[in-house]
Amino acid sequence: MQEHMRESTTAEFADVCIRVPATEVDRVKSALSKFLELAGVKYSIADDDEDLLTWEEAFPKIGPGDILQGARGREGLTQTKLAERIGVKPHHISEMENGKRSIGKDMARRLAKALNTGYKVFL
């Protein structure tokens, strides 16, 4: 069975992103650097947006099936157990997770109830 969560290797760090007027970028970077040095905090400041990705760029192929598989894993359910909860055959869950069967609004609502989430994540 696949691992659904892995231990974070960056648990001791947090990313902070701020938005400032473009004309003030250099001044704000300088001020933040000085402040963090005075505070004795380890830090790094990205020079440009090349390091930043939208979630769509980071996960370009995520779809309803991937979300279903993740939600099922989060709840600790097998495909068989989920199928029993929503009243379908187990192979239907497999087909939805693999993109071979679409997830309609009614099915999304049934999945959402069984997986403790909102139905719109599956549409």
Proportion of strand residues? under 5%
Summarize the amount of helix as a percent range. Answer: 40-55%
Helix-strand makeup class: mainly alpha
Q: Whole-number radius of gyration?
A: 21 Å
Q: What is the CATH superfamily label of the domain at 64-122?
A: lambda repressor-like DNA-binding domains
Examine the coordinates and then state which fold CATH places here, giving the name of the CATH topology of the domain at 64-122: 434 Repressor (Amino-terminal Domain)
Question: How many beta-strand elements?
Answer: 0
**Helix-strand string:** HHHHHH
Q: Which ranges are low-confidence, i.e. pLDDT below 50, for 5 or more consecutive residues?
A: none
* CATH architectural category of the domain at 64-122: Orthogonal Bundle
Q: Mean pLDDT, rounded to whole units?
A: 85
Supply the key terms.
single chain; 123 residues; mainly alpha; 434 Repressor (Amino-terminal Domain)
